[in-house]
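Dear U.,

For the methods section draft, I wanted the exact inputs and outputs in one place so we can describe them consistently. I've listed the two proteins in the order they'll appear in the manuscript figures. Please don't edit the token lines directly; just add comments below if something needs changing.

First protein:
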Amino acid sequence: MRFVPTALVAATLVAAIVVLPAQASHAQVTTTPGLSPSLTTGGGAAPSGPDAGSSLVSSGLLNGLSQLSIGDISRFVGANSTAVTDLLAAPPAAANVAVWWDRLDDVRQSALVQAAPQLVGNLEGVPFIVRDRANRTLLGQSIREAQEAADSGTTSPNGDPKQVLEMLRSVSSALEGEPKQPKRSLLALDTVYPGRAAVVVGDLSTADYVSVLVPGMYFSVKDQLVDWTATAQTLYTAERAWQDYFRGGARSERPDEGIATVAWIGYHTPELGTVGSERQAMEGARFLEQALSGIRSARPGHEPYVSVLGHSYGSTAALITLRSGQVSVDALALMGTPGSETTQSVKDLDVANGNVWVGGALLDPVVGTGFFGTDPGSAAFGARSFDVEGGEDPLSNTVLDGSFGHNEYFKQNSRSLRNLALIALGRGELAAETPSFTSIGPVRLGGITR
């Protein structure tokens, strides 16, 4: 039997009358006879565009949920899981969600985390620390449910219980870092097999530099999230080493200060039979756009330097994302990229100052193909090339390995990893192909000339 909320709140849920305007200062609380309190625009424009209707419905659902009793929240979510899924598929703008969340008191926030962890954990605009707590709650609940289903031989709405359990245990393993490594948090979690997830290395709430790693084909939460998170850790370590270098060797007292890397498997990546189409890249672009918007809107007036590092098919998803006109980043690095038919040049992308970089390793069969359109490595595209060959680092004077084939761009102690870290720190000028110390000039930071 489906749970039916009180008629008063049901009117808010169904009518979806709430508009949370971006101009929060113009919003005011009003009371309509027969309806629960709702926000109306005080001169602000309602959302527009192709998703405006869905956004209004989502906003109405959010406000309606926040006005249910504590017990009714849990019952409504349990009986209307599709409504939560639909809301996350077409959510309100992250800035509007932030306004909604800030208006809730501590008791109501805690109740929503416990009763609707899937919603709170994956809703852009909710504080990152709260999303981590909600997603960990969802993870624990889902593991218990999958284990019970596997033990009893019953079916699960999330898929085959054994596969779901293996997938969720991979998420748990990805969250376990070494004692001296920075903390990890669960930014996103979809428990329906094959799932989606994003694990953060570092503190996304305070980081000055945020790097989002977007993978290509054959990447699944069950089989690759642990390794992809290890890759994010490797990049974090490289960025941290360069950050210390530019500080003149001074190491921060906080191990996670300034940097966060995101192991993002936020879409269902293609397999051999589907990699010839951009369809899944378009799906990935939709989710990536939402994730980047959430990062961008989390700290108004103090946004981090955001870079996207896309590998293989993931670079295609990144290109589509930044071609949409809905979100921008500070740097984009493409590795082993097949391009995208939607993007003909750097000028098509919302990347600050055209800060787009392309790396192509020797014997990488994808490099130079332009499989989906213009080759991003071509001169006509307008991106800059970063060096992936081995040799001596002109700054540290250490010998770095070269990258070969399609899967060595994040290889430890490689020039490619070194240059990706520099690009992510806004030091792309030091990553150009065949750099020389004399052409770069001395770097003076922290009182030390290098």
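Second protein (the one for the lower panel):
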Amino acid sequence: MTFADTIAAVATPPGTGGIGIIRVSGPKAEDIASRLFRPTRPGFTLKSHRLCHGRIVSARSGRVLDEVLAAFMKKPQSYTGEDVLEIHCHGNPLILQSALAEVVHAGARLAEPGEFTKRAFLNNRIDLCQAEAVADIVGARTGRGLEIALSQQRGELSGKIENLRRSLTGILAGLETSIDFTEEEVSGGPTDDARGRIDALLAELEGLSSTYDRGKLVRKGAGAVIAGKPNTGKSSLLNRLLGENRAIVTAIPGTTRDFIEEEIGIRGVPVRLTDTAGIRDPADIIEREGIDRVRERLSSADAVILMFDGSAPLTAEDDAAIEKTAGRPVIPVINKSDLEQVIDAEQLRNRLAPATPLSISAKTGDGIPALLDAVYALVAGQAREPDPENDIVITRVRHKTALEKTAAHLLQARESLAGGLSAEFVAFDIREALDSLGEITGMTSREDVLDRIFSTFCVGK
């Protein structure tokens, strides 16, 4: 696809850094380079796919804006499949904005979110799975999330979908042969063969769909709230899990009045930890507001780490904490195992049954590995644990929906075969299945779907 306009944007994150990159894509990219870039070596011209040292200047005033490296990439061997210019400046926002303004004045327009990757997709440089993976690579929050995104960007999920499409196309070809010729002219039974192949495809679709819960969890993460009465060691636990002193810890009840959020990775799953105000009758309006926010966090938490002080007896405030977390996914924890245990553990077990409290010490780290295992087990639920060496994972509800639609059409085709309907009816369902499967890689996606997907990207991508 050929676009008449040229787009430009800052491709590096906002803020100050060592390097800042301006990306330009479109038919005017080479002309913009000739107008704004002055190579250090006299008479030198930009060659495709080579870095060149020089200066970026204002076409209007001739003023030098920065010392830069420039790279020009001739189409179609570029990210977007168009002529692409990259200007590597010093990472000062003032420099980047002034250079971008000159690029726009020279004939480009500001890119929309995700427009570079959208052009790469429309120019058949990548498919829709790979385009989405670009955003996931940028936004990955754990090593496992990055592995999955890189796998999809390499085309491993796309290859799996293509293999399924080939199998469907083979079934369709056999059915259409039986439509075009009479039974006497066709040897064998294409409909008999189709039944077995449809069953095999349904099994593959089910296997791929079953990876979604795990993929979604790795991509989007889960939330765990640390709750309990004051002085049970909630902030100490947060600090222990983070490996740093993020929250203030004192012996004064009510030290934490607002919630503190940080993120850790547990077996590849990003988990947002929220340290909350102690649950008790508030001493003032500020503490009341903090406790009200605890209730909001508890209502949406995937896991609640409910803490008790093992060095003290159970109190009415412990009872209030148990009541406020009733019906939530709770992991009860008895903290301060490094001190003499005073708490009535048996009474607590009876109150919390069938959950069994874990014994930990936020101070020494005792019991922390078991707690992390419990959090993972709770948030992962029934999500299938993938084989990291040989497993393709889907991460988006769009993928799962398309697979379910494909399976529904195949089930209808199988019913048509079982009911003795003619090959024309079965072939129709197979074509519908092909269209549904094509939505994943973008072969059959509507324009509004594409706009919605690429609008979630950052501007420079």
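Candidate sentences for the figure legend, describing the second protein: The chain has three domains: 7-127, 131-211+391-442, 218-380. The longest strand covers residues 64-73.

Thanks,
Y.
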